From TrEMBL:
This is Altered inheritance of mitochondria protein 6. SUPFAM superfamilies: PLC-like phosphodiesterases. The lineage of its organism: Eukaryota, Fungi, Dikarya, Ascomycota, Pezizomycotina. It comes from Leptosphaeria maculans (strain JN3 / isolate v23.1.3 / race Av1-4-5-6-7-8). Belongs to the AIM6 family. PANTHER family: ALTERED INHERITANCE OF MITOCHONDRIA PROTEIN 6. The keyword DNA damage does not apply. The chain crosses the membrane at residues 155-182. It comes from the Eukaryota.
């Protein structure tokens, strides 16, 4: 279909920006000039067609005299291709030679256009909209177009409403399903004396640790578990939260002050004078052991441990030496001596390890040579490097744990968890620790995503790890790890 040039006085007012130089006729200023559908298609070819009409004043007068004039330029061309002189006519009927073919200027332009040239880019949004029936079709009245538009809009609204309703229903079902799972799978809140302390605990002040009324159900129904509360002092309630969850091991980072006090904190800037090793850990533990052994003098077998469920379990206090280990050592010994005097500490007497309700382990900058120095009354044990157990100096008489960074031990763990080869290395390392009577421990395990974290926990426990290093106490001790992530939602979180 050839493009037409429509000249009207009304449309010229809408496109007054077209100047006289466009038609290369400076002496004639066309008053009516506008393009419709093929505006950019005939920009050059249309005025060529006008020039073909001639240059006489009579022809221009003819153009000016018409209110609406449609010009359809055509070109006779030889069938063999485009060549020779070209003459343009107003109508196809003017071309009568059988040796000539009539083509529109658009077709001629397409033939002359180089292959690398592309006049237009991707279809505009208006062209795409026409596929949906919103633009006027050939031979269609305005009322028919409006009716099509109404039908299109009506079906669009119906589709949106249907999808919205189904989406809301699916969301309601999803939320109901997850809520029901939470109610069924969430562990019940404890009712023990330990839980009561967790709910009423206050930060220590200048008077020392929190004092509370002892309850006989202090650790009732709490099952002790081989988990280590990593950076325990960061928790809202240090020590007690870990014990209430059943973890038998807690960690405290210590710094030595100029006045020989041991402050607890991950960094020196995070320490405070009230948060000391004694106020957060040693004094509370001494209170627990004192109350647990009130009737020890009249009992043939005293329950020395923290947990009613298994009173023989020894609680482990892992002390990370953050500053000069040699300077911290004598201060720590003096603060631990009251617990040793009450026979509450595990110790080595030169031939055997005598278990007690509390075992002290040094890590970080703890001096191993000072641990070894006391060979008859050793009550601070060492956290041996798991990857260096081939050395003969680490054994059950001087060490309790054998620890390492998980990444250093097996490499990066990502995606679906540890691979088969990584798990084999873990098993070998765990067996090496067990052969020396030590408990293996891996720190810096993944915390997120929850599914990856739980998968690593499961793999480590299946491999027989001696102590599971955890940050999320409740998730590690009370949840079924296989149900922590349901329908894309982490139910057990990071608590």
């Amino acid at each position: 279909m050839s493009c037409s040039l429509l000249l009207t006085e009304e449309l010229a007012q809408e496109h007054g920006g077209i100047d006289e130089n466009y038609l290369l006729l400076p002496r004639w200023d066309p008053p009516h000039f506008s393009f419709f559908r093929c505006t950019f298609e005939i920009y050059t070819l249309s005025w060529t067609g006008l020039l073909a009409m001639g240059s006489s004043e009579e022809k221009f007068d003819h153009v000016k005299a018409q209110t609406v004039v449609t010009v359809r330029p055509v070109s006779p061309m030889r069938l063999g291709g485009i060549g020779g002189s070209k003459t343009f006519y107003d109508d196809e009927s003017a071309v009568s030679s059988p040796g000539l073919s009539v083509i529109s200027l658009e077709e001629m332009e397409a033939r002359l256009r180089p292959q690398w040239y592309r006049r237009s880019g991707a279809p505009s949004w208006r062209d795409r909209v026409s596929w949906y029936g919103l633009r006027l079709r050939t031979g269609e009245t305005e009322s028919q177009r409006r009716e099509r538009r109404r039908r299109c809009c009506r079906w669009t609204v119906i589709t949106v409403v249907v999808f919205t309703v189904f989406g809301v229903m699916a969301g309601i079902v999803y939320i109901t399903f997850v809520t029901a799972l939470l109610r069924r799978l969430a562990p019940p809140s404890g009712q023990s004396g330990l839980q009561h302390i967790v709910e009423t605990w206050k930060e220590p002040d200048s008077n020392g640790a929190l004092t509370y009324k002892w309850r006989d159900d202090f650790s009732r129904d709490i099952v002790p578990k081989t988990c280590h509360s990593h950076n325990d002092y960061w928790r809202p309630v240090p020590l007690y939260m870990a014990l209430a969850a059943g973890c038998v091991s807690v960690e405290a980072d210590i710094w030595l002050t100029d006045d020989s006090e041991l402050l607890v904190g991950h960094s020196w800037k995070s320490t405070s004078s009230a948060r000391t090793l004694r106020s957060l850990y040693l004094d509370p533990l001494a209170t627990i052991f004192t109350n647990r052994n009130v009737s020890a003098a009249s009992a043939l077998e005293k329950e020395v441990g923290v947990f009613d469920w298994d009173p023989n379990v020894s609680t482990v206090l892992l002390i990370d030496f953050k500053s000069n280990g040699s300077a911290i050592w004598p201060v720590l010994l003096s603060q631990l001596q009251p617990l040793r005097d009450n026979n509450w500490l595990t110790y080595f007497n030169g031939t055997h390890v005598i278990p007690g309700p509390l075992t002290i382990v040094g890590t970080g900058d703890a001096p191993f040579h000072l641990v070894q120095a006391n060979s008859t009354n050793r009550f601070i044990f060492y956290d041996a490097p798991l990857l260096s157990l081939s050395e003969d100096k680490y054994n059950a008489t001087n060490s309790l744990y054998a620890s390492t960074n998980l990444k250093a031990a097996v490499g990066s763990v990502w995606g679906r968890g540890m691979s088969g080869s990584q798990l084999d290395r873990v098993r070998q390392q765990v067996q090496a620790a067990e052969a020396k009577g030590l408990k293996s421990r891996y720190w810096d395990t993944p915390d997120w995503p929850v599914g990856l974290r739980d998968g690593v926990w499961r793999r480590l426990t299946e491999a027989g790890v001696g102590m599971l290093n955890v940050d999320a106490l409740v998730s590690a001790t009370s949840w079924d790890w296989g149900w922590c992530v349901v329908a894309g939602i982490a139910l057990c979180g990071d608590s």
